[in-house]
Amino acid sequence: MVQRLTITRPDDWHLHLRDGPALAHVVAHSARQFGRAIVMPNLNPPVTRVAEAAAYRQRIQQGLHLAEQRGDLGKDAAGFEPLMTLYLTDNTPADEIRRAVESGFVYAVKLYPAGATTNSDAGVTDLLGRCRAVLEVMQELGMPLLVHGEVTDPDTDLFDREALFIDRVMLPLRRAFPALKVVFEHITTREGAHYVRDADGPVAATITAHHLLYNRNALFTGGLQPHWYCLPVLKRESHREALVEAATSGNPRFFLGTDSAPHARGAKEQACGCAGCYTALHAMALYAQAFDRAGKLEALEAFASWHGPDFYGLPRNTDTITLERAEMTVPNELPFGDDTVVPLAAGEALDWRVVG
Ligand code: DOR
Ligand code: ZN
What we know:
Elements: E1 4-8, E2 12-15, H1 21-33, E3 36-39, H2 50-70, E4 81-87, H3 94-103, E5 106-111, H4 127-130, H5 132-141, E6 145-147, H6 161-176, E7 182-184, H7 190-198, E8 203-207, H8 209-213, H9 237-247, E9 254-256, H10 265-268, H11 283-293, H12 300-312, E10 320-329, E11 334-336, E12 339-341, E13 349-354
Parallel strand pairs: 2-3, 3-4, 4-5, 5-6, 6-7, 7-8, 8-9
Antiparallel strand pairs: 1-10, 10-13, 11-12
């Protein structure tokens, strides 16, 4: 049985770092494991302009600095690089994409269909109707579109939203812009995995640790479990199996994106709880657990550390991290600014931990 695993330092291609005093707490957890992270722009108000992304990037760097002063960062973590994104709206000017490319620190543009998830009210109402000029420039300049792939029509069954998105949005988008780089973020279904596996052109997908480890039973076992509630919501077991198959297949279209999305304890444990699972603290342990259970530990490095930079056209990290098979109990809560956040699987034991 493999006891230690040393792999190229991984990156997180989908991460929520939030803002304000919580930022320094959560960024430290990511920086201890990951070299870089694609930082989601769904702040309130959202990061729609390059100038806003520059200011947010600076706040992240200040957060890292503060974490370092507090002794929250491990060795090498101060080099953590936030890769910024812009939040696409119906009114994003095409010129903003040119400025984003010129900036050198904006790496992607995120599509939130209006109403799909946390802070998506300013999102896109009609992608091909409203954003053609922007998509044209993105295709021309090689700027990836990161897609929250769910239809928002309230009559659609929540569990079918991703599969329907493929037919209603993804296929027409890919027909209109076949050379546009597209990342189908946090896929949760067999349909999503198979679409990405089989599609023509530059298409990839991120997969979260929680969608690899849990199915929708986790939401309801022993009562309503708000800390397992995220969007897209966990699906049935056969979908989880399809995601594990995709992630461990060695196919370079699939790579790591935690979608770690912290909310203060009180915002989750209430009558109308927020969507998002906090996994940044123990992300690599969770992924190792999922790959180990599938008997595919040898496939973890390519998924976590190679396929993402290859798709984005960035160099792979040159240093390494080491995971050890050793029981680790997930803490019951963690500091989150003036509040606390409950990590996914709080109180449970994991088989792996990062040791260096
Ligand atoms: O569960 C989620 N939480 N899904 C998202 O798409 C957004 C995220 C958040 O920002 O809380
Ligand atoms: Zn997300």
